Amino acid sequence: MTVNDAGARTDPLAEPPLSYGQILRLDELLAVARVHEDDVDRTLFLATHQSCEIWFAVLLRHLEIAGRALRDGDGGTALRRIEPLPTVMRVLTGQFDALATLAPDAFGRIRVELGDTSGFQSVQWREVEFLCGLRDERLLRTRGFTEADRDRLRARLAAPSVAESFDAYRVGDHPPELVERVRAALLSFDEAAALWRARHAALAERFLGGAPGTAGSEGADYLWRAARRRLFPAAWPQD
């Protein structure tokens, strides 16, 4: 027996189970998803970006738990939250494969329609970077960020990063084999993130060549440089 919001006792077995659509809140999801555009190419473009943002939210949840676990000395929990992340990054890389199916003229038309908006303005991805430890405070000045966006990033700056948490964990009194497994998991995630960035750069170069990207960004050149950045430098082999 359970108690409902009105304080009455209810029998869970007597209540109809939630359907697949109800569990996923599918009606609400599709109402806000950009899947109803008249232009199906625009639908593909916008839906892939919305999908990325959902996965960024998943990354943040895992990284938050992993960071807390490392600070608590719980390497096992941290490992369970970090190990799925390379797979998530491969799913995100697949979004670029979907975008690559656009015809060049369709991409060009959508790019013009975007105006001053850009994936560079994804505050959630900047949160991922800041939470991991890759912190560039200049990004707080990104054009298009709201003050609420900047507050979210400032909060990430004020909190311990996963990299800092791992640095403290690795020098603590913990089983060496577990420390090594956590390090390897962070490296795998970092590598998958680098490959995702490189796939993004290749896609931009495919459509833009050396031309500027959306919102006047540097396009493929910037993305290729970004692919060299590391979220967890200490996880990589040291000289």
UniProtKB/TrEMBL annotation:
Highest taxon of the lineage: Bacteria
GO biological process terms, semicolon-separated: L-tryptophan catabolic process to acetyl-CoA; L-tryptophan catabolic process to kynurenine
GO molecular function terms attached to this record: heme binding; L-tryptophan 2,3-dioxygenase activity; metal ion binding
SUPFAM superfamilies the UniProt entry points to: Indolic compounds 2,3-dioxygenase-like (SSF140959)
Coiled-coil segments on the chain, per record: none
Family annotation (Pfam families): Trp_dioxygenase (PF03301)
PANTHER family: TRYPTOPHAN 2,3-DIOXYGENASE
Protein name: Tryptophan 2,3-dioxygenase
Species this chain originates from: Streptomyces mimosae
Lineage of producing organism: Bacteria, Bacillati, Actinomycetota, Actinomycetes, Kitasatosporales
